[in-house]
What does this fold into?
Amino acid sequence: MTYQALYREWRPATFNEVSGQEHIKRTLMNMLKQQRIPHALLFCGPRGTGKTSMAKILARAVNCGEGVRAEPCLNCTACRNIANNTSIDVLEIDAASNRGIDEIRELREHVKFAPSELRYKVYIIDEVHMLTTEAFNALLKTLEEPPSYVLFILATTEPHKLPATIISRCQRFDFRRLSQDSIIARLQEISRNKGADLSIEAAKLIAEQAQGGMRDALGMLEQCMSFSEDNVSLETVETVTGSVPTTVYQRVLNALVQGDVARALELLHAELTAGREAGQYLRSYITALRLLLLAAHSPQVLELQGYEISNLKKLADDVGSFLPELILLALSTENDMRYGGHPRLHLELLIVRQHQVMSGVRQGEAKTEDEVVRIENIITPVAEKRPLPERPQHTAPSASERTELPQTPTPPTVSALLKAWPDVIKSIKQRAPLTGAMMGGLVPLRMDGDTVILQLTENNVHIFKRLSNSIDLTHIAGGFRAVLGRPVDVKLILPSQEEQGVAVSVSRDQVKEILDMFQGTIIKE
It folds into this structure.
Protein backbone atom coordinates (compact mmCIF):
# COMPACT_ATOMS: atom_id res chain seq x y z
CA MET A 1 0.00 0.00 0.00
CA THR A 2 1.28 3.47 -0.87
CA TYR A 3 2.30 5.82 1.92
CA GLN A 4 -0.38 8.09 3.34
CA ALA A 5 0.10 11.32 5.28
CA LEU A 6 -0.62 11.04 8.98
CA TYR A 7 -3.75 13.18 8.84
CA ARG A 8 -5.20 10.84 6.17
CA GLU A 9 -4.06 7.62 7.80
CA TRP A 10 -5.41 8.69 11.19
CA ARG A 11 -8.63 10.29 9.98
CA PRO A 12 -11.34 9.39 12.55
CA ALA A 13 -13.70 6.62 11.41
CA THR A 14 -16.29 7.01 14.21
CA PHE A 15 -17.66 9.89 16.24
CA ASN A 16 -15.88 8.67 19.37
CA GLU A 17 -12.52 8.90 17.59
CA VAL A 18 -13.02 12.60 16.79
CA SER A 19 -11.00 14.85 19.11
CA GLY A 20 -13.06 17.57 20.76
CA GLN A 21 -16.30 18.94 19.25
CA GLU A 22 -18.36 17.21 21.94
CA HIS A 23 -21.36 19.49 21.35
CA ILE A 24 -21.54 18.45 17.69
CA LYS A 25 -20.87 14.74 18.22
CA ARG A 26 -23.61 14.46 20.83
CA THR A 27 -26.17 16.28 18.67
CA LEU A 28 -25.48 14.19 15.57
CA MET A 29 -25.47 10.89 17.46
CA ASN A 30 -28.82 11.72 19.09
CA MET A 31 -30.26 12.66 15.68
CA LEU A 32 -29.20 9.28 14.32
CA LYS A 33 -30.59 7.40 17.31
CA GLN A 34 -33.95 9.15 16.94
CA GLN A 35 -33.98 8.77 13.11
CA ARG A 36 -34.33 12.57 12.81
CA ILE A 37 -31.93 13.20 9.96
CA PRO A 38 -32.09 16.71 8.42
CA HIS A 39 -31.81 17.08 4.66
CA ALA A 40 -29.11 19.78 4.79
CA LEU A 41 -26.37 20.51 7.31
CA LEU A 42 -23.83 23.34 7.39
CA PHE A 43 -20.46 22.66 9.06
CA CYS A 44 -18.57 25.89 9.87
CA GLY A 45 -15.22 26.35 11.57
CA PRO A 46 -11.45 26.82 11.22
CA ARG A 47 -9.34 24.51 9.10
CA GLY A 48 -8.33 21.14 10.47
CA THR A 49 -11.03 20.93 13.15
CA GLY A 50 -12.90 17.90 11.80
CA LYS A 51 -15.56 19.18 9.38
CA THR A 52 -14.83 16.81 6.50
CA SER A 53 -14.10 13.88 8.83
CA MET A 54 -17.43 14.37 10.61
CA ALA A 55 -19.23 14.59 7.24
CA LYS A 56 -17.78 11.24 6.11
CA ILE A 57 -18.64 9.59 9.43
CA LEU A 58 -22.22 10.85 9.09
CA ALA A 59 -22.39 9.50 5.53
CA ARG A 60 -21.34 6.05 6.80
CA ALA A 61 -23.75 6.19 9.75
CA VAL A 62 -26.84 6.88 7.60
CA ASN A 63 -25.84 4.23 5.02
CA CYS A 64 -24.50 1.49 7.32
CA GLY A 65 -25.53 -2.01 6.29
CA GLU A 66 -26.80 -2.67 9.81
CA GLY A 67 -29.21 0.27 9.59
CA VAL A 68 -29.09 3.93 10.56
CA ARG A 69 -27.18 4.01 13.83
CA ALA A 70 -25.23 6.39 16.05
CA GLU A 71 -21.90 4.80 15.11
CA PRO A 72 -21.13 3.06 11.78
CA CYS A 73 -20.09 -0.58 12.02
CA LEU A 74 -17.08 -0.08 9.68
CA ASN A 75 -17.32 -3.71 8.55
CA CYS A 76 -20.18 -3.74 6.04
CA THR A 77 -19.71 -3.15 2.33
CA ALA A 78 -21.23 0.33 2.48
CA CYS A 79 -18.90 1.49 5.29
CA ARG A 80 -15.84 0.11 3.52
CA ASN A 81 -16.74 1.64 0.14
CA ILE A 82 -17.37 5.07 1.68
CA ALA A 83 -14.09 4.87 3.64
CA ASN A 84 -12.21 3.97 0.41
CA ASN A 85 -13.97 6.73 -1.59
CA THR A 86 -15.32 4.14 -4.06
CA SER A 87 -19.04 4.60 -3.44
CA ILE A 88 -20.85 6.33 -6.31
CA ASP A 89 -23.61 7.53 -3.98
CA VAL A 90 -21.35 9.62 -1.71
CA LEU A 91 -19.92 12.54 -3.68
CA GLU A 92 -17.35 14.96 -2.29
CA ILE A 93 -17.34 18.18 -4.33
CA ASP A 94 -14.73 20.92 -4.12
CA ALA A 95 -16.67 24.17 -4.54
CA ALA A 96 -13.46 26.09 -5.20
CA SER A 97 -12.99 24.14 -8.46
CA ASN A 98 -16.69 23.65 -9.29
CA ARG A 99 -18.10 27.04 -8.42
CA GLY A 100 -20.12 27.96 -11.50
CA ILE A 101 -23.78 27.71 -12.34
CA ASP A 102 -23.16 24.93 -14.90
CA GLU A 103 -21.74 22.60 -12.24
CA ILE A 104 -24.70 23.26 -9.94
CA ARG A 105 -27.18 22.61 -12.76
CA GLU A 106 -25.47 19.28 -13.39
CA LEU A 107 -25.74 18.49 -9.67
CA ARG A 108 -29.46 19.27 -9.74
CA GLU A 109 -29.94 16.82 -12.61
CA HIS A 110 -28.13 14.05 -10.72
CA VAL A 111 -30.17 14.66 -7.56
CA LYS A 112 -33.29 13.43 -9.36
CA PHE A 113 -31.91 9.88 -9.59
CA ALA A 114 -32.21 7.54 -6.61
CA PRO A 115 -29.04 6.09 -5.04
CA SER A 116 -27.64 3.02 -6.83
CA GLU A 117 -26.53 0.93 -3.87
CA LEU A 118 -26.94 2.91 -0.62
CA ARG A 119 -29.81 4.18 1.48
CA TYR A 120 -28.96 7.86 1.03
CA LYS A 121 -27.22 9.83 -1.70
CA VAL A 122 -24.85 12.17 0.20
CA TYR A 123 -23.35 15.34 -1.29
CA ILE A 124 -20.41 16.80 0.68
CA ILE A 125 -19.68 20.28 -0.73
CA ASP A 126 -16.40 21.57 0.70
CA GLU A 127 -15.49 25.30 0.79
CA VAL A 128 -19.06 26.08 -0.25
CA HIS A 129 -18.50 29.83 0.20
CA MET A 130 -16.53 29.79 -3.08
CA LEU A 131 -19.69 29.28 -5.17
CA THR A 132 -20.78 32.20 -7.31
CA THR A 133 -23.98 34.13 -6.62
CA GLU A 134 -25.66 32.52 -9.63
CA ALA A 135 -24.64 29.05 -8.41
CA PHE A 136 -26.10 29.75 -4.96
CA ASN A 137 -29.37 30.89 -6.53
CA ALA A 138 -29.50 27.73 -8.63
CA LEU A 139 -28.96 25.59 -5.53
CA LEU A 140 -31.61 27.25 -3.38
CA LYS A 141 -34.72 25.29 -4.37
CA THR A 142 -32.95 21.94 -4.44
CA LEU A 143 -31.40 22.64 -1.04
CA GLU A 144 -34.76 23.57 0.44
CA GLU A 145 -36.78 20.59 -0.83
CA PRO A 146 -34.49 17.78 -1.98
CA PRO A 147 -35.74 14.22 -2.51
CA SER A 148 -36.11 12.15 0.64
CA TYR A 149 -33.06 10.05 -0.23
CA VAL A 150 -30.64 13.03 -0.56
CA LEU A 151 -28.49 14.51 2.21
CA PHE A 152 -26.49 17.72 1.69
CA ILE A 153 -23.50 18.48 3.95
CA LEU A 154 -21.96 21.90 3.30
CA ALA A 155 -18.58 22.74 4.82
CA THR A 156 -16.90 26.15 4.97
CA THR A 157 -14.25 28.08 6.86
CA GLU A 158 -15.93 31.42 6.10
CA PRO A 159 -19.67 31.21 6.83
CA HIS A 160 -20.06 35.00 6.70
CA LYS A 161 -19.64 34.79 2.92
CA LEU A 162 -22.71 32.58 2.52
CA PRO A 163 -26.05 34.12 1.56
CA ALA A 164 -28.59 34.18 4.38
CA THR A 165 -30.97 32.22 2.16
CA ILE A 166 -28.53 29.30 2.10
CA ILE A 167 -27.85 29.37 5.85
CA SER A 168 -31.57 29.44 6.68
CA ARG A 169 -32.12 26.20 4.75
CA CYS A 170 -29.51 24.26 6.75
CA GLN A 171 -28.94 23.13 10.30
CA ARG A 172 -25.73 24.94 11.28
CA PHE A 173 -22.96 23.37 13.37
CA ASP A 174 -20.05 25.56 14.46
CA PHE A 175 -16.78 23.71 14.96
CA ARG A 176 -14.38 25.14 17.54
CA ARG A 177 -10.61 25.20 17.63
CA LEU A 178 -9.32 22.15 19.47
CA SER A 179 -7.83 22.58 22.92
CA GLN A 180 -4.12 22.02 23.39
CA ASP A 181 -4.85 19.07 25.69
CA SER A 182 -6.87 17.33 22.95
CA ILE A 183 -4.12 17.86 20.39
CA ILE A 184 -1.38 16.71 22.77
CA ALA A 185 -3.30 13.54 23.65
CA ARG A 186 -3.82 12.70 19.97
CA LEU A 187 -0.16 13.38 19.12
CA GLN A 188 1.03 11.11 21.90
CA GLU A 189 -1.36 8.36 20.85
CA ILE A 190 -0.16 8.46 17.24
CA SER A 191 3.54 8.69 18.15
CA ARG A 192 3.24 5.64 20.44
CA ASN A 193 1.54 3.68 17.68
CA LYS A 194 4.27 4.69 15.22
CA GLY A 195 7.05 3.79 17.65
CA ALA A 196 8.26 7.40 17.86
CA ASP A 197 9.57 9.05 21.01
CA LEU A 198 7.70 12.35 21.44
CA SER A 199 8.61 14.43 24.49
CA ILE A 200 5.83 16.30 26.30
CA GLU A 201 7.59 19.64 25.72
CA ALA A 202 7.71 18.95 21.97
CA ALA A 203 4.03 17.98 21.94
CA LYS A 204 3.12 21.22 23.74
CA LEU A 205 5.05 23.34 21.24
CA ILE A 206 3.43 21.55 18.29
CA ALA A 207 0.00 22.13 19.84
CA GLU A 208 0.77 25.83 20.31
CA GLN A 209 2.00 26.20 16.73
CA ALA A 210 -1.08 24.38 15.34
CA GLN A 211 -3.42 27.01 16.87
CA GLY A 212 -6.28 24.58 17.37
CA GLY A 213 -6.00 22.68 14.06
CA MET A 214 -5.43 18.93 14.29
CA ARG A 215 -4.41 18.59 10.65
CA ASP A 216 -1.67 21.22 11.07
CA ALA A 217 -0.46 19.48 14.23
CA LEU A 218 -0.22 16.09 12.50
CA GLY A 219 1.61 17.67 9.58
CA MET A 220 4.22 19.15 11.92
CA LEU A 221 4.57 15.86 13.82
CA GLU A 222 5.13 13.98 10.57
CA GLN A 223 7.77 16.48 9.48
CA CYS A 224 9.56 16.30 12.84
CA MET A 225 9.53 12.49 12.79
CA SER A 226 11.17 12.52 9.36
CA PHE A 227 13.78 15.03 10.49
CA SER A 228 14.79 13.31 13.72
CA GLU A 229 14.23 9.67 12.78
CA ASP A 230 11.31 9.20 15.21
CA ASN A 231 12.99 10.92 18.17
CA VAL A 232 11.08 14.19 18.48
CA SER A 233 12.45 16.56 21.11
CA LEU A 234 11.76 20.22 21.85
CA GLU A 235 14.87 21.24 19.90
CA THR A 236 13.64 19.23 16.92
CA VAL A 237 10.31 21.07 16.82
CA GLU A 238 12.03 24.45 17.20
CA THR A 239 14.36 23.63 14.31
CA VAL A 240 11.66 22.30 11.99
CA THR A 241 9.00 24.95 12.67
CA GLY A 242 11.43 27.88 12.97
CA SER A 243 10.06 28.88 16.38
CA VAL A 244 12.40 30.65 18.77
CA PRO A 245 13.08 29.21 22.23
CA THR A 246 11.42 31.11 25.08
CA THR A 247 14.82 31.54 26.75
CA VAL A 248 15.87 33.83 23.90
CA TYR A 249 13.02 36.22 24.66
CA GLN A 250 13.76 36.05 28.36
CA ARG A 251 17.31 37.23 27.63
CA VAL A 252 15.95 40.02 25.39
CA LEU A 253 13.53 41.21 28.07
CA ASN A 254 16.21 40.98 30.76
CA ALA A 255 18.40 43.24 28.61
CA LEU A 256 15.53 45.73 28.26
CA VAL A 257 14.92 45.65 32.02
CA GLN A 258 18.60 46.50 32.55
CA GLY A 259 18.40 49.28 29.96
CA ASP A 260 20.90 47.54 27.65
CA VAL A 261 19.26 48.06 24.25
CA ALA A 262 22.50 47.17 22.46
CA ARG A 263 22.47 43.70 24.04
CA ALA A 264 18.81 43.21 23.09
CA LEU A 265 19.55 44.11 19.46
CA GLU A 266 22.54 41.75 19.43
CA LEU A 267 20.29 38.88 20.55
CA LEU A 268 17.78 39.76 17.83
CA HIS A 269 20.47 39.89 15.13
CA ALA A 270 21.91 36.55 16.27
CA GLU A 271 18.55 34.82 15.77
CA LEU A 272 17.82 36.44 12.40
CA THR A 273 21.35 35.74 11.16
CA ALA A 274 20.88 32.09 12.15
CA GLY A 275 17.99 31.92 9.68
CA ARG A 276 14.94 32.68 11.83
CA GLU A 277 12.04 34.15 9.87
CA ALA A 278 11.11 37.64 11.10
CA GLY A 279 7.36 37.01 11.18
CA GLN A 280 7.80 33.78 13.14
CA TYR A 281 10.18 35.53 15.53
CA LEU A 282 7.59 38.23 16.25
CA ARG A 283 4.74 35.73 16.70
CA SER A 284 6.82 33.72 19.16
CA TYR A 285 7.80 36.96 20.95
CA ILE A 286 4.14 37.92 21.35
CA THR A 287 3.43 34.44 22.72
CA ALA A 288 6.23 34.91 25.27
CA LEU A 289 4.81 38.30 26.31
CA ARG A 290 1.39 36.67 26.75
CA LEU A 291 2.95 34.07 29.06
CA LEU A 292 4.44 36.90 31.14
CA LEU A 293 1.04 38.61 31.32
CA LEU A 294 -0.59 35.42 32.58
CA ALA A 295 2.29 34.78 34.99
CA ALA A 296 1.78 38.25 36.48
CA HIS A 297 -2.03 38.19 36.78
CA SER A 298 -3.23 34.57 36.51
CA PRO A 299 -0.40 32.09 37.14
CA GLN A 300 -2.86 29.28 37.86
CA VAL A 301 -3.75 29.20 34.16
CA LEU A 302 -0.13 28.44 33.27
CA GLU A 303 0.14 25.89 36.07
CA LEU A 304 -2.86 24.02 34.64
CA GLN A 305 -1.13 23.96 31.25
CA GLY A 306 2.04 22.52 32.78
CA TYR A 307 4.32 25.56 32.46
CA GLU A 308 7.21 26.19 34.83
CA ILE A 309 6.20 29.63 36.07
CA SER A 310 8.96 30.49 38.54
CA ASN A 311 11.21 32.13 35.93
CA LEU A 312 8.23 33.68 34.15
CA LYS A 313 6.92 35.15 37.40
CA LYS A 314 10.29 36.68 38.25
CA LEU A 315 10.67 38.23 34.80
CA ALA A 316 7.09 39.53 34.91
CA ASP A 317 7.87 41.23 38.24
CA ASP A 318 11.00 42.80 36.72
CA VAL A 319 9.08 44.14 33.72
CA GLY A 320 6.31 45.33 36.02
CA SER A 321 3.73 47.87 34.83
CA PHE A 322 5.44 48.30 31.44
CA LEU A 323 4.18 44.91 30.22
CA PRO A 324 0.84 46.07 28.72
CA GLU A 325 2.61 48.74 26.66
CA LEU A 326 5.24 46.27 25.50
CA ILE A 327 2.46 43.95 24.28
CA LEU A 328 0.62 46.78 22.51
CA LEU A 329 3.82 47.80 20.74
CA ALA A 330 4.45 44.20 19.62
CA LEU A 331 0.88 43.85 18.30
CA SER A 332 1.17 47.16 16.47
CA THR A 333 4.45 46.01 14.91
CA GLU A 334 2.81 42.76 13.77
CA ASN A 335 0.17 44.76 11.94
CA ASP A 336 2.77 47.12 10.40
CA MET A 337 4.89 44.18 9.29
CA ARG A 338 1.91 42.54 7.62
CA TYR A 339 1.25 45.53 5.36
CA GLY A 340 4.77 46.94 5.00
CA GLY A 341 8.22 45.85 3.94
CA HIS A 342 11.56 45.64 5.77
CA PRO A 343 10.53 43.12 8.46
CA ARG A 344 13.97 43.18 10.08
CA LEU A 345 13.78 46.96 10.51
CA HIS A 346 10.33 46.61 12.09
CA LEU A 347 11.76 44.22 14.68
CA GLU A 348 14.72 46.49 15.44
CA LEU A 349 12.39 49.47 15.79
CA LEU A 350 10.19 47.44 18.15
CA ILE A 351 13.15 46.72 20.45
CA VAL A 352 14.18 50.40 20.47
CA ARG A 353 10.62 51.61 21.16
CA GLN A 354 10.19 49.12 23.99
CA HIS A 355 13.51 50.31 25.42
CA GLN A 356 12.25 53.92 25.21
CA VAL A 357 9.04 53.00 27.00
CA MET A 358 10.87 51.35 29.89
CA SER A 359 13.78 53.78 30.21
CA GLY A 360 11.74 56.89 29.37
CA VAL A 361 9.33 56.42 32.25
CA ARG A 362 12.11 55.81 34.70
CA GLN A 363 14.03 58.88 33.53
CA GLY A 364 10.88 60.97 33.70
CA GLU A 365 10.22 60.03 37.30
CA ALA A 366 13.45 61.53 38.60
CA LYS A 367 14.89 64.86 37.46
CA THR A 368 18.35 66.03 38.34
CA GLU A 369 18.79 69.31 40.18
CA ASP A 370 20.15 71.00 37.04
CA GLU A 371 17.08 69.95 35.07
CA VAL A 372 14.74 71.30 37.74
CA VAL A 373 16.56 74.66 37.68
CA ARG A 374 16.35 74.77 33.89
CA ILE A 375 12.61 74.04 34.01
CA GLU A 376 12.05 76.73 36.64
CA ASN A 377 13.84 79.24 34.44
CA ILE A 378 11.59 78.34 31.50
CA ILE A 379 8.37 78.51 33.50
CA THR A 380 7.85 81.89 35.20
CA PRO A 381 4.37 81.75 36.62
CA VAL A 382 2.57 84.95 37.46
CA ALA A 383 0.62 84.74 40.68
CA GLU A 384 -3.07 85.22 40.12
CA LYS A 385 -4.56 87.97 42.25
CA ARG A 386 -7.20 86.31 44.33
CA PRO A 387 -8.56 87.47 47.69
CA LEU A 388 -7.14 85.32 50.42
CA PRO A 389 -9.28 84.31 53.40
CA GLU A 390 -8.42 85.84 56.74
CA ARG A 391 -6.34 83.58 58.87
CA PRO A 392 -6.48 83.42 62.64
CA GLN A 393 -3.64 85.18 64.42
CA HIS A 394 -1.13 82.98 66.17
CA THR A 395 1.78 83.88 68.34
CA ALA A 396 5.08 83.46 66.60
CA PRO A 397 6.85 80.26 67.65
CA SER A 398 10.22 80.45 69.29
CA ALA A 399 13.37 79.68 67.33
CA SER A 400 13.58 76.22 68.86
CA GLU A 401 9.99 75.46 67.84
CA ARG A 402 10.37 76.57 64.23
CA THR A 403 10.37 73.88 61.58
CA GLU A 404 11.53 74.45 58.03
CA LEU A 405 8.68 73.52 55.63
CA PRO A 406 9.05 73.10 51.89
CA GLN A 407 7.55 75.94 49.89
CA THR A 408 4.47 75.11 47.85
CA PRO A 409 5.07 75.97 44.19
CA THR A 410 2.78 78.58 42.70
CA PRO A 411 0.37 77.18 40.11
CA PRO A 412 1.56 78.07 36.60
CA THR A 413 -0.50 80.41 34.45
CA VAL A 414 -1.93 79.71 31.01
CA SER A 415 1.09 81.23 29.29
CA ALA A 416 3.45 79.08 31.39
CA LEU A 417 1.45 75.96 30.49
CA LEU A 418 1.62 76.86 26.80
CA LYS A 419 5.39 77.39 27.04
CA ALA A 420 5.86 74.04 28.75
CA TRP A 421 3.39 72.17 26.47
CA PRO A 422 5.92 71.08 23.75
CA ASP A 423 8.27 69.68 26.43
CA VAL A 424 5.31 67.91 28.08
CA ILE A 425 4.34 66.23 24.79
CA LYS A 426 7.96 65.19 24.22
CA SER A 427 8.15 63.68 27.71
CA ILE A 428 4.86 61.80 27.21
CA LYS A 429 6.07 60.37 23.89
CA GLN A 430 9.17 59.04 25.62
CA ARG A 431 7.07 57.49 28.39
CA ALA A 432 4.19 56.18 26.29
CA PRO A 433 4.50 56.46 22.48
CA LEU A 434 0.89 55.40 21.86
CA THR A 435 -0.44 58.06 24.22
CA GLY A 436 1.95 60.70 22.92
CA ALA A 437 0.82 60.10 19.35
CA MET A 438 -2.66 61.43 20.22
CA MET A 439 -1.56 64.50 22.21
CA GLY A 440 -1.59 66.74 19.12
CA GLY A 441 -5.36 67.03 19.42
CA LEU A 442 -5.17 68.59 22.93
CA VAL A 443 -4.34 72.08 24.20
CA PRO A 444 -3.85 73.24 27.81
CA LEU A 445 -6.77 75.44 28.88
CA ARG A 446 -5.88 76.47 32.43
CA MET A 447 -4.69 75.28 35.84
CA ASP A 448 -7.27 74.85 38.63
CA GLY A 449 -5.33 74.29 41.82
CA ASP A 450 -3.34 71.11 41.18
CA THR A 451 -5.45 70.06 38.17
CA VAL A 452 -4.46 70.84 34.59
CA ILE A 453 -7.50 71.28 32.34
CA LEU A 454 -6.86 70.04 28.79
CA GLN A 455 -9.32 70.64 25.99
CA LEU A 456 -9.64 68.77 22.69
CA THR A 457 -9.36 70.98 19.62
CA GLU A 458 -12.20 69.01 17.97
CA ASN A 459 -15.18 67.04 19.25
CA ASN A 460 -13.44 63.71 18.67
CA VAL A 461 -15.24 61.38 21.09
CA HIS A 462 -12.98 58.45 20.15
CA ILE A 463 -9.78 60.23 21.23
CA PHE A 464 -11.57 61.63 24.30
CA LYS A 465 -12.58 58.14 25.46
CA ARG A 466 -9.17 56.70 24.56
CA LEU A 467 -7.25 59.30 26.61
CA SER A 468 -9.73 59.41 29.52
CA ASN A 469 -8.74 56.02 30.92
CA SER A 470 -6.62 55.91 34.04
CA ILE A 471 -3.47 54.60 32.32
CA ASP A 472 -3.29 57.39 29.72
CA LEU A 473 -4.17 60.07 32.29
CA THR A 474 -1.33 58.78 34.46
CA HIS A 475 1.10 59.07 31.53
CA ILE A 476 -0.06 62.64 30.80
CA ALA A 477 0.22 63.62 34.46
CA GLY A 478 3.71 62.11 34.54
CA GLY A 479 4.72 64.28 31.57
CA PHE A 480 3.59 67.42 33.40
CA ARG A 481 5.34 66.29 36.56
CA ALA A 482 8.58 65.77 34.63
CA VAL A 483 8.49 69.26 33.09
CA LEU A 484 6.82 71.35 35.81
CA GLY A 485 8.62 69.64 38.66
CA ARG A 486 5.41 69.22 40.69
CA PRO A 487 2.68 66.56 40.88
CA VAL A 488 -0.52 67.45 39.08
CA ASP A 489 -3.84 65.90 38.17
CA VAL A 490 -5.22 66.01 34.63
CA LYS A 491 -8.76 66.54 33.41
CA LEU A 492 -9.94 66.35 29.77
CA ILE A 493 -12.92 68.23 28.34
CA LEU A 494 -14.48 68.45 24.89
CA PRO A 495 -14.95 71.78 23.07
CA SER A 496 -18.71 71.31 23.35
CA GLN A 497 -18.53 70.97 27.14
CA GLU A 498 -19.20 74.11 29.16
CA GLU A 499 -18.03 74.24 32.75
CA GLN A 500 -20.29 76.49 34.77
CA GLY A 501 -19.01 78.88 37.37
CA VAL A 502 -15.43 79.02 36.09
CA ALA A 503 -13.93 82.35 35.14
CA VAL A 504 -10.53 82.68 33.60
CA SER A 505 -8.84 86.07 33.69
CA VAL A 506 -5.84 86.85 31.52
CA SER A 507 -3.82 90.03 31.93
CA ARG A 508 -2.62 92.16 29.01
CA ASP A 509 0.95 91.11 29.70
CA GLN A 510 -0.07 87.47 29.43
CA VAL A 511 -1.94 88.13 26.17
CA LYS A 512 1.14 89.88 24.74
CA GLU A 513 3.34 86.98 25.87
CA ILE A 514 1.06 84.44 24.15
CA LEU A 515 0.94 86.52 20.94
CA ASP A 516 4.73 86.77 20.87
CA MET A 517 5.08 83.03 21.47
CA PHE A 518 2.81 82.04 18.56
CA GLN A 519 3.51 85.13 16.39
CA GLY A 520 -0.20 85.96 16.38
CA THR A 521 -2.31 89.09 16.05
CA ILE A 522 -5.57 90.21 17.62
CA ILE A 523 -8.35 90.11 15.03
CA LYS A 524 -11.13 91.49 17.21
CA GLU A 525 -10.94 92.86 20.74
The chain is about 55% helix and 10% strand.
